[in-house]
């Protein structure tokens, strides 16, 4: 059966807008005009409206009466809830990865880690701002953990919200180097096929990041987006 133009256009619109929001090109709270987006993507309002509804399902967009769609804004509690969910889910992905990840996948994970290490060792005060997808340490573990439900949640449905959340605290002094050390412990546990240790190290890593973010946002309430 031939797909409609709307069906084929909408996924691309969703992914591009998700990326724009996660990387801060579209600010939290900013109004999203269907007419302007239709012009940008060279389509009618139908695929745009459908795409915005999908972004609403991902928690990236909210709709308001008499206003329309805006980029979602988050409270400190919203961010903490996301981190709590990540701690549980990503702890399990690390455990599963340690127990089932292939040697080739472990080699890829170590290669990505070494690239991050070189970046931070050359510029230790720079933020640990990972590229999306296969150059993202957490994404790789979730993608290759062997559980398609966890992979879908962490690499698709929640992924851009997670990236947006990271950007709130990635400039915290010293956090990048500490996070890299925590990643090394996770990597070593996965390479040693130690599922329990990998889960523990991942949960500690995400809990530490949550505490940094919480302290930063409470001390800088005007930065909450």
TrEMBL record:
Q: Is ATP-binding tagged as a keyword?
A: no
User: What Pfam families does the record tag this protein with?
Assistant: FCD, GntR
Pinpoint the HTH gntR-type domain residues: 7-74
Gene3D superfamilies in alphabetical order? GntR ligand-binding domain-like, Winged helix-like DNA-binding domain superfamily/Winged helix DNA-binding domain
Q: Which UniProt keywords apply?
A: DNA-binding, Transcription, Transcription regulation
For this chain, one GO molecular function annotation is: DNA-binding transcription factor activity
> Is Transcription set as a keyword in this record?
yes
Against InterPro entries, the record matches this protein to: GntR_C, TF_FadR/GntR_C, Tscrpt_reg_HTH_GntR, WH-like_DNA-bd_sf, WH_DNA-bd_sf
PANTHER family this protein is in? TRANSCRIPTIONAL REGULATOR, GNTR FAMILY, TRANSCRIPTIONAL REGULATORY PROTEIN
Protein name listed in UniProt:
DNA-binding transcriptional regulator, GntR family
